[in-house]
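Table 4 source record.
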Amino acid sequence: MEKIKKVEIHNKVFEESYTAHIQKNGTSWLGWIPEVPKVKCEEFTEKALLKTLKNKLHEALIAEEEAWEKRFEEDVRAGRLDHLAEKAVKNYREGKCRSIDELQKLL
């Protein structure tokens, strides 16, 4: 096996960059993205590998987003976030909140 090469892959939809690790292994190329352990693959060319990594990364990010949204909706339905809403209302009533206009002036 040859030395591992690091290549940046940018996902335009999520506006994030990831580091792909690619390595020639005999007649094929192996690739993986350490930040997203589910993303790993093997192709016969470096170009094909990078394309597959990019596609698999996008699919994994979509799946993570859908899982997060599903969990959030379940938490809302189960009332697990009610205490946060109650705290926000309490802080608002006690005058501990600022308007968006005030916060924008601070920026």
